[in-house]
Amino acid sequence: MENGIGYIEAYFKREMSAGEIRQFEQLILEDPAFAEEVAFYLSARHVAQDQGEEERKRRFREIYRQKPSSRPLRTIGRSGWYIAAAVFAALLLGWYLYQRPVASGQLANRYIEQHWQTLGVSMSSKEDSIQTGLLLYNEGKWQEALRQFENIIRSGNPRTTRSESR
Questions:
Q1: pLDDT digits (tens, 9 = 90+) for 50-74
Q2: E-only strand ranges, 97-142
Q3: DSSP states of 52-66 as a string?
Q4: Distance between CA 61 and CA 58 in Å, rounded?
C-alpha cells in the first residue's frame, strides 16, 4: 500500500493486519515527512469533527425554535421529590415486612393456637383415663392433665377408669 491518505485512514480505521500496523508505526518514527502527513490527517479529522458537531448543534437549535411548544416543561419541585421518596420508602418497608421469614417458633405457636387449643373429648357414660386427661387439658389444668397422662403411660392401660388411675 502506498503512503497516502488512504494508507493513513486504513490505520485509524483498524483495517490493517498486525504486520502492517508495525510497519506503519515504524514508518512514522523513521520518516519525518510521513509523520507530518499523519499529524496533518489527524488535525484535519479533528477540525472536521468539530465542524460537524457545530453544524449538528446549529441544526438542532433551528429545529427547536421552529417547533411550537404546546406547553412548557414542568419540573418536579422539592415537595414532589419528598413525596416520591416517601412512596419509595413505604414500598420498600412493605416489601421487607412481606418477605421477612417467619421464625420456626412463631410458626409452631401459631399451629398450636389454631389446632391444639382444645382437644376432642368423647361423650360416653363410661369414664376412662384418656378422656379424663383430655378434659383436664381443656379446662386449663395442665399439671393435672400431665399427671393423668403420665399415669396412663406407667400403667400401660389407657382405658382404665379415673378412680383406678389414682
A1: 888 888 888 888 888 887 666 665 6
A2: none
A3: HHHHHHHHHHHHHHH
A4: 5
pLDDT for res 65: 83
CB 149 within 8 A of CB 134: no
Question: Do residues 40 and 30 make contact, with C-beta atoms less than 8 angstroms apart?
Answer: no
The grid coordinates listed for 36 are 507530518
Look-up of cell digits 437549535 = 61
Q: How many CA atoms lie within 13 A of 125 on its CB side?
A: 0
Residue with cell 479529522: 45
At residue 1 the predicted structure's pLDDT band, cuts being 50, 70 and 90, is: very low
Looking at residue 164, what is its pLDDT? 47
What the block records as the C-alpha cell of 129 is: 383415663
